[in-house]
Give the backbone structure.
Amino acid sequence: MPSDEVHATRFGLLFSRYDRELRRFLSGYLRNKSDVDDCAQESFLNLWKQETRGALHEDPRGYLFITARNVVRDFLRKGRARRSEAHVELSEELDAVRYTEAETTLMHREGLRLIEAQLEALRPSTRMVFLLHYVELLPFDAIAKRLGISTRTVEREMARALDHCREALGPTCMDILSD
């Protein structure tokens, strides 16, 4: 079993190698420098405990960063619990607006998923025209140029795609596409 001096030397090397990188990593989650310092210290403390137990065999960097992520989660969870005491009830009207917005977003996503499923039934060229227009927001002439076809062919392909979606999904299709 290695001596405390060996553990301290190895830990010192790990600290000097990963301290700056770990603090940058933690800064992605935490805005306050003292919070970053606290979480870095706790992460290195856990690394030290593993090292002195002899349980830190391979990939100390991976262990350190997984530990740091868990430390941040715990820190943020505790922070939310402390802040819950300062919770202020929102008006029912605001809650209703948020619910309606969330419901609309969910319906929109579901509609897009339905349209996506319908696109699988189309020919690849028709699907490509539809996606270029609705996803990349290209006008018909730019699509024609990109695909090396006439603008009239793009119009026909788009009409074919829209007819197929309307037939499968009804008026909901146009509601989704117009958003």
